[in-house]
Amino acid sequence: QVQLVESGGGLVQAGESLRLSCAASGSIFSGNIMGWYRQAPGKQRELVAIISTPGRSAYADSVKGRFTISRDNGKNSVYLQMNSLKPEDTAVYYCLLKIVARDYWGQGTQVTVSS
What we know:
By secondary structure, the chain is mainly β. The chain has strands at 3-7, 10-13, 18-25, 33-39, 46-52, 57-59, 67-72, 77-82, 91-99, 102-105, 109-114.
């Protein structure tokens, strides 16, 4: 059984920063991918950033240069440093752990950016 627990969401003003954390527990195999998705009201869930076990990362164009994804393999954790937040970043952010062909999701954490 794999579980993901996210933390770090909240309400901030435009231009401020937040750091999201996600810790995975259970049967975690190496060679996995971890990442963050988000879903705004009335919109589909979209990729924010992903990172492989060796540390290779990819970002959505909308967050490049503002967000940084990182991971601690020893702690089975992934982080998302979000700088220069914009109102359009408001969404529920979900942590993803992909092991081979199976996806595991966290419960989501709300990020709200006021203008």
